[in-house]
Write a structure and sequence with these properties.
The chain folds into four domains: about 80 residues, conserved putative lor/sdh protein from methanococcus maripaludis s2 fold (Beta Barrel); about 90 residues, Elongation Factor Tu (Ef-tu), domain 3, CATH 2.40.30; about 50 residues; about 80 residues, Orthogonal Bundle (Helix Hairpins), CATH 1.10.287. About 30% of the residues lie in helices and about 35% in strands. The strands form four sheets. Strands 2, 11, 12, 13, 14, 15, 16, 20 and 21 form a nine-stranded antiparallel β-sheet that branches. Strands 1, 17, 18, 19 and 22 form a five-stranded antiparallel β-sheet that branches. Strands 3-10-8-5 form a four-stranded antiparallel β-sheet, with no helix packed on it.
């Protein structure tokens, strides 16, 4: 029995088969490129997100929205000179005794806050109450004698009208009446003086403030003019500055200043008034200046060391919006948006803060545009850097 014949393998020609086995490099690349492009389009349609290199234009924020920018521009800014100053109260005084008496009570001590009109010292008042009673008794006597003199004058006047009393008697009655009136006036003045002396035995605060010194103790006898207590008011404060004579003319011309108060961060307030003394210190050749602070300022105490910036002129300075500034550790920078929308981070050196703007000392030129939203600018810069990197990776894959 014959075995079934096996079919022979179909042999390819040597030339064709050899070419196929050498690899894919000899095949046409067009089908592979079309396939990759199809996969890319499918990925974009499936929600893979736009690629930065193929999507938004350079300088655009993620989502296709353009970044808000502002141009660095020159502005006329004030030129200032800073000097040291010391805060002092406008109202500071020492309350003194106005009568001779013994101290009976001291109601406040150093560092105490005293309301306006509060009793701070009481003096012994028995002698002054007795003097007041004596003066009031003298006033009653004078008024009684005045009534008697008036009655006598009326009686004599009637008699003189009826030709029963001479003119000289009427003149004496009128003189007695005038004397009685004068004695009443003197008695009234004595009563007022006694009341005033008695009132001085109760010493009150002339204004609301803080006690800084206590000069008497209970039991001491004080005389007229002896100091009792020293204090100052916190409602109105000012700064005392010794200004060199070389700056006096410019400060007088502009009459503007701002006070930099210590703190974290420091605070700045505009001067409410400026008083320049009309004479200089012959030893230091400086003029004393009093810079008024606005009323009701909190956290400021007499004796505090502050800085005062006096305006002395004007100059052109480059400024940008303060919200465009990026601070990273000790580095200060801004995001600069180029003409083609390219976003780059550039380090700058800043000067003074002027409201919503800040002075740029170095790192920018006038006309260059900066991003107003550093967060969105950071995302745009990252997207721009990621675009070329993905392009290179795709080229290497091919």
């Amino acid at each position: 029995m014959r075995e079934p014949t096996r079919p022979r393998a179909h042999r390819q020609p040597r030339g064709g088969g050899g070419a196929f086995r050498r690899g894919r490099g000899a095949a046409s690349p067009l089908p592979r490129l079309l396939g990759r492009l199809l996969l890319l389009l499918v990925g974009v349609g499936a929600g893979a997100g736009p690629l930065p290199a193929l999507g938004a234009e350079p300088g655009a924020a993620p989502g296709g929205q353009a970044l808000a920018t502002a141009a660095a521009a020159y502005r006329r800014l004030p030129v200032e000179e800073r000097f040291d100053g010391v805060v002092e109260p406008v109202q500071q005084s020492t309350v003194a005794a106005q009568v001779v008496a013994q101290v009976e009570a001291v109601l406040f001590d150093v560092d105490d806050f005293v309301p306006k009109g509060a009793v701070i010292v009481r003096l012994r008042d028995r002698a002054y109450r007795a003097r007041l009673a004596q003066a009031e008794a003298g006033l009653k006597e004078a008024r009684a004698r005045l009534v008697e003199a008036e009655q006598e004058w009326r009686r004599v006047r009637d008699l003189h009208a009826r030709k029963l009393a001479p003119r000289s008697q009427l003149d004496r009655a009128e003189a007695a009446l005038d004397a009685a009136r004068a004695r009443v006036a003197a008695a009234e003045a004595a009563v007022a003086e006694a009341k005033e002396a008695l009132a001085h035995t109760v010493v009150r605060a002339p204004y609301a403030g803080v006690v800084v010194a206590r000069h008497v103790e209970v039991g001491e006898t004080v005389r007229v003019g002896d100091p009792l207590m020293t204090g100052f008011s916190l409602e109105r404060l000012r700064v005392r500055v010794e200004l060199p004579q070389s700056f006096v003319a410019a400060v007088r011309r502009h009459r503007q200043a701002r006070v930099i108060l210590p703190g974290d961060p420091p605070r700045e307030v505009a001067a409410s008034s400026l008083t320049i003394f009309p004479y200089a210190d012959p030893a230091a050749h400086s003029f004393r200046v009093r810079v008024g602070l606005p009323p009701g300022l909190q956290g400021v105490w007499p004796g505090t060391f502050v800085k005062v910036a006096f305006r002395t002129g004007e100059e052109r300075r480059l400024v940008v919006p303060a919200r465009a500034v990026v601070r990273r550790s000790e580095v200060t920078a801004v995001y600069v948006v180029g003409p083609e929308g390219r976003v780059s981070l550039r380090q700058v050196r800043l000067g003074r803060r002027l409201g919503e703007s800040v002075e740029v000392l170095a790192g920018l030129r006038a006309g260059e545009r900066v991003a107003l939203d550093p967060v969105r600018a950071t995302a745009a810069a990252k997207a721009q850097r990621a675009g070329p990197a993905r392009g290179r990776a795709a080229g290497e894959g091919r």
